[in-house]
Amino acid sequence: MKLITEGLAKISIKTSNKVSKDMDVFYNPVMKLNRDISVLLLNSINKKNMQISLPLAGSGIRGIRFLKELNKGIIKSISFNDCSKKAVNSIKNSLSLNKINNFKVIKKNNNISNKNNHDKKISIHNEDANLFLLNSTGFDYIDIDPFGSSNPYLESAVKRLSRNGILAVTNTDTAALSGTYPNACIRNYWAVPKRDYMMHETGLRILVRKIQLVAMQHDKALFPIFSYFKDHYFRIFFQCIKGKKETDKIPKQHGMFNNAGPLWTGNLWDDKLVNKMHSELLKKSIENKKTIKNNKTTINKKINDNQNHNDILKFLKTIKEESKINTIGFYGIHDIAKKRKIKIISKKEDIIKKIRKKGYKAASTHFSGTGIRSDIAYNKLISLLKE
User: Fold this and answer.
1) Same domain, 195 and 287
2) What CATH number is associated with residue 337?
3) 192: domain range?
4) What CA–CA distance (Å, rounded) separates 128 from 139?
C-alpha cells in the first residue's frame, strides 16, 4: 500500500507500474491536472448546494478533493459509486484517513432511493454506474471519467442531469476521434475524423456533438463551457439548459469542417468562466509563493505545489487567450510553411505579434505547440509569413 497526497487529499492504495482498467482500485496520477481543473472550475462558477455524482469513483480521490477543497456552500451532497467492492472499501478507508467520517454506505440493491440518500451529505454506493444513475432522482454535477470511451454512460448521465446542471466528461478514446481509426470514429461517434495538425481539435468537436445528440433526445441542450485536450485525453464541461427552444439551437451549430465531421462549430469555452478560473488560480499561486518558508519538513512539498500551480497557470493562460478568438481550427505554422515552401525564421510569438499589428486577433493554442489561432484569412497569413 502506498500513501498518496494530491491537493489537500490523501489516499492509501495499492499502486501498479502500469495504469489499466484491471487495477483493483483505479487511480491514474497523470489525471491530477484533470482533477485540479475540476476543483478550480467548481470554485469559479456561481453555484451552491450542488448534488454531486461520481458514478465511476475509482479510488475516490476526486470526490475527497471536492470535500476538502471546494468552497463552503457548494456541496449539498456527494455520492461516490463504483462497481468494485475493493474500490468501495478503499473509498471508505480514504475518507476516514482524511478525517471524514459522516458518510453512509448504501448496500447494493437497497430499496432506499437516492432521493433519500441526498439527505446524507456523503454516500457510497456499490452499483453498476448506469444503474446507479438511473436509480437516482438526478444530480447537479455528474462526472463521467471512464477508462476509454464515455459512450456507455452518456444516456444515463444526461437523463439524470438537472436543469442548469454541469456534465463533465473525460474520454481517452483519442485514437479513434483523432483519425487513427476512422471507421471506429464513424461507428462510435457518428462522424468522419481527419488526421492532420488539427486532429485533436477536430476530435474534440466531434465528441462534443456526439454527447449533444444524446442529450437532445431528452430536450436538453448541452453547451460546452470549458474544453481541452491534454495527455492523450479529451475533457469537456457542459452546462445543461432544458427545453425545446434551446435544444433546437444545437444542431444549427453542427457542420463539416476541413472535410471532417459533422462536428460542433460553436464555442468550446465560456470566456468569462475561463477568465474567472485564471484569476482564481493566479490568486492562489501568489498565496502559495508567500507561504514558502525554510521549513525542512515542508519546503519540498510547497515548492512542488507551487510548480504544479505554475504548470496549470501556464496551461490555463493559453486557453484564456485562445478562448477570446471565436474560430474553428487554427493554423499549424510549420505544416503550412512546409506545404507552401516558406522558410520560417521568426518565432511563433513574433508571428503572433505581426498578425496583431495587422489588426487581427491571434494567440497560441493549447492543441499544438506550433499552432496559432487567429481570425486572419489564409491568403493574408501566407503573405505575412513571406515577409
Assistant:
1) no
2) 3.30.56.70
3) 2-271
4) 17
Q: How confident is the model at residue 29 (pLDDT cuts 50, 70, 90)?
A: very high
Compute the distance between CA of residue 109 and CA of residue 237 in angstroms, rounded to an integer.
31
pLDDT averaged over every residue in the chain? 92
d(CA 175, CA 61): 27
Mean of the pLDDT values across residues 257-273?
98
Q: Please tell me the predicted confidence (pLDDT) of residue 310.
A: 87
Q: Answer yes or no: do 73 and 213 share one domain.
A: yes
In the chain, where do the E strands start and end?
2-6, 9-13, 50-54, 75-81, 103-106, 122-125, 139-144, 161-171, 220-230, 233-242, 254-257, 260-264, 331-332, 362-365, 368-374
Q: Is the pTM above the cut of 0.85?
A: yes
Sign, CA dihedral 361-363-367-369, equals positive
| Residues 97/11, Cβ–Cβ less than 8 Å | yes
Please state the domain count of the chain.
3
- Bond before 262 cis per omega within 30 degrees: yes
pLDDT tops 60 at residue 323: yes
C-alpha distances out from residue 379 to 91, 327, 386, Å: 56, 16, 11
